[in-house]
C-alpha cells in the first residue's frame, strides 16, 4: 500500500520493532487527530473489504492507535479500530505484545471512494505500532487455515478413492 499525508505534515515513521529489532514497523512521532496518514489510492466505491493488521502498544498507552476510513484526505471519516472510542468494529488491546486483527468491512459511503487512515491519537506519540497492513476486496480473501486443511483433506480423500477405483479395474 502506498501512503500519503493528509492536510500537510505527517508523523508516520518507520522504526525498529520494540520486540524484534530485525523487523521494522510503522509508528508515529507526534499525536494527530482526524487521521495522520492515508492510502494514496482510494478503496473501490462498492463491496466489502478485508482489513487485517498487527498492532502493539504498551499497557500505559491510554488509547493510542486508530484505524479508519475517510472520504477525503482528511475528510469525513469513520473509525474501525481503536482503543478508546465507542462503536468500533474492534477494540485494540494495549498490553505490550503484538495482536493480529482481521475484519470484513463495508464502505460506509456506497458509491464514494474512501481511503484507509491511521493515527496515534494520544501523547506521548511513538507508542502505537502497526505492521502487516492488508486491505483487499473480501472476495479475494484467503480461506482460514482450518478451511484450507479441510479442503486439502477432502481433495486427498478424492485422490485415494480414484486410485482405488483405478487399481480395481
Fill in the keyword field for this structure:
169 residues, three-stranded antiparallel beta sheet, disordered C terminus
Structural description of this entry:
By secondary structure, the protein is mainly β. It is built from 1 helix and 11 strands. It has one helix spanning 145-168; strands at residues 3-5, 12-16, 24-28, 37-39, 48-57, 65-70, 77-82, 90-91, 99-106, 115-120, 128-137. The strands form 3 sheets. Strands 1-4-10-6-7-8 form a 6-stranded mixed β-sheet, with no helix packed on it. Strands 9-5-11 form a 3-stranded antiparallel β-sheet, with no helix packed on it. Strands 2-3 form a two-stranded antiparallel sheet. The protein is globular, with a radius of gyration of 20 Å.
Task: Offer a concise description of the structure.
The protein is mainly beta and 169 residues long.
Task: State the helicity in percent bands.
Answer: 10-25%
User: Gap between N and C termini, in Å?
Assistant: 55 Å
Oligomerization status of the protein chains: single chain
Binned strand content: 35-45%
Low-confidence stretches: 146-167
Could you give the count of β-strands? 11
Any chance you could write out the topology, listing elements then pairs?
Layout: E1 3-5, E2 12-16, E3 24-28, E4 37-39, E5 48-57, E6 65-70, E7 77-82, E8 90-91, E9 99-106, E10 115-120, E11 128-137, H1 145-168
Parallel strand pairs: 7-8
Antiparallel strand pairs: 1-4, 2-3, 4-10, 5-9, 5-11, 6-7, 6-10
Amino acid at each position: 500500500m502506498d501512503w500519503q499525508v493528509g492536510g500537510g505534515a505527517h508523523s508516520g515513521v518507520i522504526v525498529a520493532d520494540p520486540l524484534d529489532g530485525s523487523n521494522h514497523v510503522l509508528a508515529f512521532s507526534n499525536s494527530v487527530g482526524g487521521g495522520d496518514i492515508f492510502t494514496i489510492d482510494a478503496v473501490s466505491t462498492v463491496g466489502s473489504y478485508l482489513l487485517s493488521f498487527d498492532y502493539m502498544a504498551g499497557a500505559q498507552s491510554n488509547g493510542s492507535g486508530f484505524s479508519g476510513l475517510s472520504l477525503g484526505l482528511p475528510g469525513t471519516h469513520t473509525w474501525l479500530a481503536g482503543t478508546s472510542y465507542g462503536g468500533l468494529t474492534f477494540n485494540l488491546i494495549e498490553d505490550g505484545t503484538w495482536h493480529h486483527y482481521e475484519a470484513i468491512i463495508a464502505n460506509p459511503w456506497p458509491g464514494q471512494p474512501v481511503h484507509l487512515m491511521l493515527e496515534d491519537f494520544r501523547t506521548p506519540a511513538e507508542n502505537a505500532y502497526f505492521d502487516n497492513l492488508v486491505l483487499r476486496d473480501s472476495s479475494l480473501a484467503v480461506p482460514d487455515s482450518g478451511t484450507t486443511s479441510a479442503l486439502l483433506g477432502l481433495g486427498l480423500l478424492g485422490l485415494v478413492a480414484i486410485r482405488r477405483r483405478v487399481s480395481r479395474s
